[in-house]
């Protein structure tokens, strides 16, 4: 049914880069056979899923939305892919994304944009717009995203779906193409909080193949999502995430969600995080710096595209020609920004300062979490904007992640869930919930209460 739905609507939505029809049907049959043999099956066995094209899938194309990886067939599965398969999840295919997850609208994909199913003239958010659009268009009931600065939560907000960035290190990064390794985190996307929790439990857990993987039990997220009791919970509204640039309808629906939490018995207070206004600037030094190093591996020798290899040119020339042809404008911008910020003489002024700001933001969170159990804010200052509106203005594009970036810099857990439609445009608004590291279950408790 989901393959038929994809066939019917994906021409308009453009959520998928690759549909693995044969692989999906084979996996579904394998689950059926296990059932017939009377084997115990997990809660997600046979459930279809849309996988962001940043996770390696053995023998199935993995492009990261880039021309430089066109035609590459990974020789191995990411740990996350493997866990999904072991859980009996049916991977329908790979979803569209901003090239190397750099963007907030999915317009930076080398394979064309994805449309927002709520209004096909608008962006679905990014970088994981394909995964979130697939959920909103009923092409898949579950999806996977990655969140470096908001790429799970912001598209969830724009498409009226649920997206969770688990605590940094909770979900293995092995086989997840690296963008900014100290920020990148894979996580679940779904249409309900409970579905997200079930998927969270399936993909989280220690992995010796990822040196930053957390070796601790996964928090009881499913239990929390089934419970949803927020009585006596202390909830802090982030004071800094309001004011100029925030759409009226977004603030209205956010305020109503906060009122609902109060009615359900939570204690709501306002909390100040004074360093959050510097988060965006710090992020756009740290993320490009790490990216400039991570993307050095695309050298025309190891993966995918190779341009100008005709025996007259040196390896350096082939590398340069391939990177020139294979990377898009935003990726080149980030590589240049990052290389500059890391260069000797500028390192302390840029990368060093950004790391200090990162520490200040972490301290803001520590102070806040001494007083409250979770923080809440809108996920994004506005609802989905029209396709093309911000493509020529990188700074305007970067502002879409104003509220999501602090949680990445500090490594906290955070969720976006729908909290109604903005009255002025009828588009979905996201409520962001942020919890301390390793307290991911609190997100699901609050999410289940509001949903
Ligand atoms: N939009 C942000 C960026 O462009 C975040 C991306 C992400 O979370 N992958 O870097």
Characterization of this structure:
The protein contains 15 helices and eleven strands. The protein has an eleven-stranded mixed β-sheet with strand order 1-3-2-4-6-5-10-11-9-7-8. Helix content is 38%, strand content 14%. It has one domain: Amidase signature (AS) enzymes. The protein has 451 residues and is of the alpha/beta class. Helix 9 crosses helix 12. The protein binds glutamine. Glutamine binds next to loops. Heterotrimer of A, B and C subunits.
- The domain tally reads 1
What is the class in the CATH system? Answer: Alpha Beta
Model regions low in confidence, pLDDT < 50 over at least 5 residues: none
CATH architecture: Alpha-Beta Complex
Protein name: Glutamyl-tRNA(Gln) amidotransferase subunit A
Enzyme class: ligase
Domain Amidase: 1-443
EC number: 6.3.5.7
Key structural traits:
GatA; AS_sf; binds glutamine; alpha/beta; globular; 451 residues; nucleotide-binding; Amidase signature (AS) enzymes; protein biosynthesis
Summarize the structure.
With 451 residues, this protein is α/β, with parallel strands linked by helices. It has helices at 2-13, 21-36, 79-86, 129-136, 153-159, 193-203, 221-227, 248-263, 279-294, 315-326, 329-342, 348-371, 394-398, 405-410, 440-450, and strands at 16-19, 48-52, 90-95, 142-146, 162-165, 186-190, 234-238, 267-271, 374-378, 413-421, 428-435. Heterotrimer of A, B and C subunits.
List the helices and strands and how they pair.
Elements: H1 2-13, E1 16-19, H2 21-36, E2 48-52, H3 79-86, E3 90-95, H4 129-136, E4 142-146, H5 153-159, E5 162-165, E6 186-190, H6 193-203, H7 221-227, E7 234-238, H8 248-263, E8 267-271, H9 279-294, H10 315-326, H11 329-342, H12 348-371, E9 374-378, H13 394-398, H14 405-410, E10 413-421, E11 428-435, H15 440-450
Parallel strand pairs: 2-3, 2-4, 7-8, 7-9
Antiparallel strand pairs: 1-3, 4-6, 5-6, 5-10, 9-11, 10-11
Helix pairs in contact: 4-5, 6-7, 7-15, 9-11, 9-12
The site of glutamine has 13 residues, from loops.
